[in-house]
Write a structure and sequence with these properties.
Number of strands of chain A: 32
CATH architecture of the largest domain in chain A: Alpha/alpha barrel
Strand order of the largest sheet of chain A: 1-2-8-9-10-11-18-15-14-13
Strand content of chain A: 15-25%
Helix content of chain A: 25-40%
Number of domains of chain A: 2
Family (chains A, B): Belongs to the glycosyl hydrolase 65 family.
Domain Glycoside hydrolase family 65 N-terminal (chains A, B): 17-254
Radius of gyration of chain A: 27 Å
Domain Glycoside hydrolase family 65 central catalytic (chains A, B): 319-697
Oligomer: homodimer
GO molecular function, one term (chains A, B): hydrolase activity, hydrolyzing O-glycosyl compounds
CATH class of the largest domain in chain A: Mainly Alpha
Structural class of chain A: alpha+beta
CATH topology of the largest domain in chain A: Glycosyltransferase
Shape of chain A: globular
InterPro entries (chains A, B): 6-hairpin_glycosidase_sf, 6hp_glycosidase-like_sf, Gal_mutarotase_sf_dom, GH65_N, Glyco_hydro_65_C, Glyco_hydro_65_M, Glyco_hydro_65_N, Malt_Pase/Glycosyl_Hdrlase
Distance between the termini of chain A: 40 Å
Chain lengths: 775, 775
C-alpha cells in the first residue's frame, strides 16, 4: 500500500508528507493537527479541496443541535481558510505542476510548514505557509504565508477572513452572530451556540508586508456574506518579488475562566486589544513565545530518549506526547480529553474510559498537576453519575459511558451506523450496559492518588469517588438464586463485539476490586481520619452501605480459569465457534470483518474487538500467575482483531511482561501505525487518543517496566532487540525520578527530596540519590 | 470578457456551455437549473467541485433557522450528487484532459445533458449524464449516467445516495431524520424542518444495466453516515465496454396537498410504491412523460415565434418561459414565485412585487388558471397583511415587502451586507418603508380581473383585496398642515438607492390609483351587487372607510412635472447633484458604484437603481402625454444604473412605446444578458425571475404592443429592425387570441367563443374570427 507519511531519518521531531493527494487530506489534517488543550485545529490547507474536513474545536463548548442528537463539540467558524487567486486563477494544487512539495509538523515547536513551487500555465510561484496554535497564549492562532513570484508579473488576490458556514457534518451549532470591522482590518464574528448559549468572539487581522497595498483602500475590499466576513486584497508582484501575509487570529468564549461574568461586548473589546498586541509582535515573535512554552511545559519535563535501530520509535513517542498535550484541556478542570482529542468530529469530543486507562497514566506519572485536573473532572461528574445511576434504578455514582460537560450525565448516542444486512441503524448499547467505565474511573483515581500521594486531593475528592462508585456496584449486583451468588448480567465488556453478555470477567473483577478498595478505605478512614469519615459517611450513608459491601462482595462471582487455565471472557464466550481471523487481522483497515458479518453474527464468534481478559491481566497483574497469563495471552491474542485503538498497546505490554519481546515489538510497531501507518484513511475522523497514551505506556510500562501496584512502585525493564537505550522520567509522590535503561543495567536518579522505595525483579531498593541495578 | 455560455445558431431550444470552468459553476447551476414549480434543483454536477452550490428547494416549505433569522426555503438533502472513482481515481474535470465537452439544457424537454471524454493517466472514458425534474409527476427526479470505457480495464466505484449534510450557507434547517433501506437498494431519508415541523420523505434507487453487478452483494455496500445514506457499487468495465446507471429519486413533504393528514409512515410507504413504479418505467419512459407534459402545459400553449436576425431573441423567450414554469408553484395557491425562483438561496425563496409587476402578467395573459393561483396567494395573504398593518399602526391590508407562507406577514430580513466604509451591516429598510408593494398587489389583482374577466374570483376574493389595500393607504396618508394636503413621507420607492424619501411619485400615484379604484368599486358594488357589497361592507366597515377615502383622496398630493416637464421622483431628487454614471452603466457587473460610494452617499446623488418614475409612466401610461414621457425618458434613463434586474425591461418597453426602437432593442439585449450574458457571476445566487417576466413583457407588451388599459385591450405593435415577424397569443377574457405581426401588418385571430374589442392606434376593432390591421 502506498503511503503518504514521511519520516526524516535525521530528525525525531518532524512528521509530514512529500506528496499532496486529495485522497489523503484526512490523514494529514488529523496527524498534523494543531492545538494547545484550549483549542484544536485540524490541519486543513488554507485553500479548499473536495474531501477536506475543516474543523476547529474549543474544549468544553458542548452544544446539542436538537433533542434527537447528543451534545457535541461544535465546529467553530473557520479562521484558517485563505483563498489565493493568481492572475485570476485560483491556487489549486491538483492543477499544473507542484514541485519541491513538503508539509511538515514540527512536534517540538508546534509549527506546521507547507511549501511548494506551483506552476500553472504562465504562473510560477513559490508558496510557504506557516502556522501554529500558540502554546503560551492559548487563545491565539498565527499564520504566515510567503509568496515568491518566479514567473510572469502577478496580481494576487487574497480572500481571507472568518467563515461561519462550517458545521458538524451538516449540523449547525451556531447562530450567525454579529460581525464587526474595526479600522478597516480587524474583523470579528460573535456567534452563540444554539442550545448551551455560549458566546464566541472570533477575531482576525492580516498584516501584509507590502504596506502600501494593505493601506491602499482601492486595493482591498471588505465583504460580508451570510455567516462570513472577509477582506479581499489585491497584491501586485513583479518577477522575483515576494510578499508575506500574516494572519493573526484569536478565539475567546463565555465559558473561559478568565471571561467569567464578562459581557460579550467586554470580551469583544479585550479580544481586540489582545489582537492588536499580537499583530504588533508579529508571527515570528509570537512563535518564539509559543515554542518556549512547549519547551518549558512539555519537552524539558522528564524527556524520553530511545536509542533504537528505528527512528520511528523515538518519533512516535514525541508524536504521542505532542498530541497528548494538544488535546488535553490542562487549563480547566471542568473539561476532559475527547476520544479523538480535538482533531476531528469523531466521538463528538466526548470523554470515555480511554482517559483513565490509556491517557491519564501519562499525566499521572509525569504531569501530576494536569492529571489532577483530569481526575477532578470526574469528581465534578459525580452529579451526572448520580443522575445516571438513579435513571437506571441504582445507587451511588454510575459514570456515563460518554461524558461531556461534567454534570451532563450520559451523552452516548443511542443509534450508530447501519447494519449491512438490514440497512437499519445499529443500537449503541455502550451508554446502557458498558458499565465497566465506573470501575475504570475508580482505577484512574486510585492510580492518581497512589502515584502522586496527594492527600489533600484524596481527602477532598478522590476518596469520595472510590466510595461512591463502590456504592453503585453494590446496587448493581444481581443475586442469582440458582447459583447462590451475585452476578453481573447483560453487560458489554471492553470487547464491544460481545453485547449482552453475563459475567464479563473484566467487569466482575474490577467491580469486585472497586468494592474491596472502598471497604478498605472505609476502615482506614474510620480509624484514622474521622473528619473525612464523618463527612463522607453522612453524605454517602456509608455505614449502611459498608454492611451491604461486606455481604455482597463475599458472594460476588469471579469467573475462574477453565481446565486449560483460560479465563473465560464471559459466561458463553468459550463455547462459541472459532474462525480464522488472520485475514482480517492482517488488513490495514479495521472492521473489515463487518464487510462479511453483521454484529449479531460477530457476537456469536470467538472474535474479540480489543483487549478484554488481557487488559484485566495487565491492569491487575497480581490476579493470576505468570504461567496462566501466558496461556491466556496465547489463547486470546489470535482471537483479538485489534479493531479498537485501545488494544494493541495492552497486548504489547503484556507480551513484554511475558518475555515475548519480539512479538511485543511487532505489536508496538502496529500500534504506532494506528495513526502513523500506511493506512491513509484510518485517522480521517480524528486522532486515536488512547493509542497515543498507549505509545507512552508501551514505552514506560512495557519496556521501561514501570508499574504502580497496590500503592508501590515497581520497575522491571526489558528492552526490545532494536533498542540500545531508553531513558525517561516519572514523578513518584512528588519526587522526580529519571531512569536510564540499557540492555545491561538500569540507573535511577532521584531528583526529589524524599527517599523512594522501589521493587525490581523481586528485590526492594531505596533510592536516595542514584541507584544502578544490573539487569 | 470571456463568456462560457453557448448558443446554437440552429437550435432555439438549447442553452449550454462548451467549456468547463469551476469559476463558472454558479452561472451554469442557475441558468440550467431544473424544476417543475413543485421543486427546483440547481444544476450542480454529479461530482463535487470547490465553488459549487448544491441546492434543491421545494416550494412553500419555509423554515426559520432561529429567531434572529427570517424564514426561508430550506436546502433539501441532495439527491443529485454521485461520486465516481475510476481505478481509485476520483472523477475530476479539473484534472487531465477533457475533450468533446458539452453541457446543454434543452428548454423544450427540460433535460440537462453533459458529456465529455475524460483522460487522466491511464484512464480514458466517455461520460454522458442526463437528468430532468419530471413535469408530469412533480415529485420525481431522474438521472442517467452512461460510461464508456475507452482505455485500460476499469473498476468504477459509484458512490451515490442521499446527502443531508447540505445547508443554506451554513444554516441547517433539518433534523437528521430517520434513514431506511429496503431490499438492499431503496434508500430513504425522512428529516423534519426544525421550526415549521414539515416532514420530508426523500427516496432514491439506482438501476444499473450490468445487473449481475448490482445484485452481487460483494460488489456493493450500503453505508450510512451522519445525515447520509448511500450505496457503493463497484463496476468492472473492460475496454470499450459501457455501463449505464439510472438514479430515480422522489421528494414528498407533509405540506403537499395530496399528503394532507397522512403520517410520515404512510408517505414513506406510498413514496416507495411510487419509486418502484418509476424504477420499473426507467429513465427513458419517465422522460417521455415529462416531455409530453412540457409540450402540453407550456409549449403548445400560445407559442411565441420571433423571426429575428438574432437567434438569441427567440432563445431568450423560450428561456424565459422555461424558467417561469420551472419556478412557479402552479400546483398550490398557498405558494408564490420567489425572486430567484427556486434556483438559488438569494432572497430566500421570498415573493416580492416582482410577481405582480413582472411575472404575473405572463400568466395572466397566457395561463390564467396559474395566474389565479398566484393572485389567490395574495388573498390568502390578507391575514398577514392585516398583521403587518396593525403592527405599524395602520388599518386594512399592508402587504409585506417579502412574503413567504401566506399568513407569515413580513419576512424581510432587517440587516443586509456590509457598508464598505463603516464595515457595519446595512439596515434593510424595504420591510419597513418600501410600501408601494401594497398598490402593486392591487395592480396585479386588477389586471388579472380585467384580463380574465373572472367574475367569480373577483366577487369571492379580488374585490376584497382592492378594497382592503385602499383601506391601508387611507390610513397611511399623513396630513401636512403647512401644505394643507395629504402626503406620504419616509418611504423607499422602486428606486432603492433612495431611502427615506418623501412623496415618491410612484408611491403617491399608485396609492391614489388604489384608493380611487376602491371608491369606484364601492359605488359599483353598492349599486349592482348588494350581496357582495353587504358582505364586504360588514367585514371591512366600508361605509365609514368610503367617507374617509372621499375626503383624503381629493387632498392627496400627486407630484407634478417641474418647469422642464420632468416629474420629480420624490421631493428632493431633482435638487441632488448629478454625476456621470456612464462607467458604472457600462460595467457588466451591477452595483459597482458601491465600490466607491456607500449607500448614504448614493442616496444623495441623482443616481437611480432601477426604473421608478419611468415604471409609473409605463404602468399608468394615460397619466401623462407622450411628449412628457419622452422628456422623462431622456431625463431618467442616463441616471438609471439598472442595478436591479427589474429595470431594463421597463425602459425597453417605454422606449418602444416612444418610437425609440433602436435604443429599445439595445436595452432588450442588455436585459437578456442579465442571465444569458457574458458576466459569468451575475446569476450565482439564482436566476432573475423578474427579468424573465420582463423578457416576455418586452416581447408582448413592448414589441407586440399589448396593453390592458382601464379594462380594455389595446394592441399597438412596433417591431425592432432586427425582427421580421412576431407571433404570439394571449387569452382575453377567456378568448384565446393569436397575433401575428410583421413590419407591414398585424393579423389577429380570435379562437374564442365571444367577440373581442380592441383598440389599435386610436381605432377600435371588433374581432369575431380574424382581423388584419395594416401598420
Amino acid at each position: 500500500m502506498e503511503t503518504g507519511i514521511k519520516y526524516f531519518e535525521d530528525n525525531q521531531w518532524l512528521i509530514g508528507e512529500e506528496k499532496f493527494r486529495t485522497d489523503w487530506l484526512g490523514k494529514a489534517e488529523t496527524i498534523m493537527c494543531l492545538g494547545n488543550g484550549y483549542l484544536g485545529i485540524r490541519s486543513a490547507t488554507e485553500e479548499s479541496y473536495i474531501g477536506e474536513t475543516r474543523n476547529t474545536f474549543v474544549a468544553g463548548t458542548f452544544n446539542k443541535f436538537d433533542d434527537n442528537e447528543v451534545t457535541e463539540l461544535p465546529n467553530v467558524p473557520d479562521l484558517i481558510g485563505m483563498d489565493f487567486r493568481l492572475n485570476n486563477q485560483r491556487l489549486d494544487l491538483t492543477l499544473g505542476t507542484v514541485s519541491e512539495y513538503q508539509r511538515t509538523l514540527n512536534l517540538k515547536t508546534g509549527e506546521l510548514i507547507r511549501s511548494f513551487v506551483w506552476e500553472y500555465q504562465e504562473i510560477k510561484a513559490r508558496f510557504t505557509f506557516r502556522r501554529f496554535a500558540s502554546f503560551s497564549n492559548k487563545h491565539l492562532i498565527a499564520q504566515k504565508v510567503e509568496i515568491q513570484n518566479l514567473g510572469v508579473p502577478l496580481t494576487i488576490e487574497v480572500i481571507s477572513g472568518i467563515n461561519g458556514q462550517v458545521s458538524n457534518s451538516g449540523s449547525q451549532h451556531f447562530t450567525e452572530g454579529d460581525k464587526a470591522l474595526s479600522e478597516g482590518k480587524y474583523m470579528q464574528m460573535m456567534p452563540y451556540t444554539s442550545q448551551s448559549n455560549i458566546f464566541f468572539v472570533l477575531s482576525t487581522v492580516h498584516k501584509i508586508a507590502k504596506e502600501h497595498d494593505i493601506y491602499d483602500e482601492t486595493k482591498k475590499r471588505i465583504e460580508m456574506g451570510r455567516r462570513k466576513i472577509y477582506n479581499r486584497y489585491w497584491l501586485d508582484l513583479d518577477q522575483n518579488e515576494s510578499v508575506s501575509i500574516e494572519k493573526i487570529s484569536s478565539i475567546h468564549t463565555s465559558i473561559d475562566l478568565e471571561t467569567s461574568g464578562k459581557t460579550l461586548e467586554e470580551v469583544k473589546n479585550s479580544s481586540l486589544v489582545e489582537l492588536k498586541q499580537a499583530e504588533e509582535l508579529g508571527y515570528q515573535a509570537l512563535h518564539e513565545e509559543s515554542k518556549n512554552a512547549w519547551d518549558k511545559q512539555v519537552w524539558s519535563v522528564l524527556p524520553i530518549t530511545i536509542e533504537s535501530e528505528n527512528i520511528k520509535d523515538q518519533l512516535a513517542v514525541n508524536f504521542a506526547k505532542y498530541h497528548l498535550h494538544v488535546m488535553t484541556p490542562a487549563h480547566d478542570e471542568r473539561m476532559n480529553i475527547g476520544a479523538k482529542g480535538m482533531s476531528g468530529e469523531g466521538y463528538k469530543g466526548h470523554t470515555f474510559w480511554d482517559t483513565e486507562i490509556f491517557m491519564l497514566p501519562y499525566f499521572t506519572f509525569t504531569h501530576p498537576e494536569i492529571a489532577k485536573k483530569l481526575v477532578t473532572y470526574r469528581y465534578l461528574g459525580l452529579e451526572g453519575a448520580h443522575k445516571k445511576a438513579a435513571e437506571n434504578g441504582f445507587e451511588g455514582a454510575q459514570f456515563p459511558w460518554e461524558a461531556a460537560w461534567p454534570d451532563d450525565g450520559e451523552t452516548t448516542p443511542v443509534w450508530g451506523a447501519a447494519d449491512i444486512i438490514t440497512g437499519k441503524p445499529t443500537k449503541i448499547w455502550s451508554g446502557f450496559i458498558e458499565q465497566h467505565i465506573t470501575s475504570d474511573v475508580a482505577f484512574g483515581m486510585k492510580q492518581f492518588m497512589d502515584v502522586t500521594g496527594d492527600k489533600t486531593f484524596s481527602r477532598e475528592k478522590g476518596y469520595e469517588v472510590i466510595l461512591d462508585t463502590a456504592k453503585f456496584w453494590a446496587s448493581r449486583l444481581e443475586w442469582q438464586e440458582a447459583n447462590q451468588r451475585y452476578e453481573i448480567l447483560e453487560v458489554v465488556g471492553p470487547d464491544e463485539y460481545k453485547e449482552h453478555v453475563d459475567n464479563n470477567a473484566f467487569t466482575n473483577y474490577t467491580a469486585h476490586w472497586n468494592i474491596t478498595l472502598a471497604m478498605k478505605l472505609y476502615e482506614e478512614l474510620k480509624a484514622n481520619d474521622p473528619e473525612v469519615f464523618d463527612r463522607l459517611n453522612k453524605k454517602l450513608d456509608l455505614t449502611r452501605v459498608y454492611n451491604e459491601w461486606q455481604e455482597k462482595v463475599a458472594k460476588l462471582y469471579l469467573p475462574q480459569p477453565n481446565k486449560d487455565k483460560v479465563l473465560p471472557q464471559d459466561d458463553t464466550y468459550l463455547s462459541k465457534p472459532i474462525i480464522d481471523l488472520t485475514k482480517y487481522k492482517n488488513d490495514a483497515h479495521v472492521g473489515t470483518l463487518f464487510h462479511e458479518y453483521n454484529l449479531d453474527q460477530v457476537n456469536n464468534l470467538q472474535a474479540t474487538k480489543q483487549a478484554d481478559v488481557l487488559l484485566l491481566l495487565f491492569l491487575f497483574e497480581d490476579l493470576f500467575p505468570k504461567e496462566e497469563k501466558l496461556i491466556n495471552w496465547n489463547y486470546y491474542e489470535p482471537k483479538t482483531l485489534h479493531d479498537s485503538s485501545l488494544s494493541l498497546s495492552t497486548h504489547a505490554i503484556l507480551a513484554a511482561d511475558l518475555g515475548k519481546l519480539e512479538e511485543s515489538y511487532e505489536l508496538f510497531n502496529k500500534a504506532l501505525d494506528i495513526d502513523m501507518g500506511e493506512n491513509m484513511t484510518s485517522s480521517n475522523e480524528g486522532i486515536h487518543a488512547a493509542s497515543l497514551g498507549g505509545i507512552w505506556q508501551m514505552t514506560v510500562f512495557g519496556y521501561g517496566g514501570v508499574r504502580c501496584l497496590d500503592g508501590k512502585l515497581r520497575i522491571e525493564p526489558h528492552l526490545p532487540k532494536a533498542w540500545n537505550k531508553l531513558s525517561f522520567g516519572i514523578i513518584w509522590q512528588n519526587n522526580p525520578l529519571t531512569i536510564e535503561i540499557t540492555k545491561e543495567q538500569m540507573t535511577i536518579v532521584n531528583h526529589g527530596e524524599k527517599e523512594v522505595e522501589i521493587e525490581s525483579f523481586g528485590k526492594s531498593y531505596t533510592i536516595k540519590e542514584e541507584i544502578i541495578i544490573t539487569l
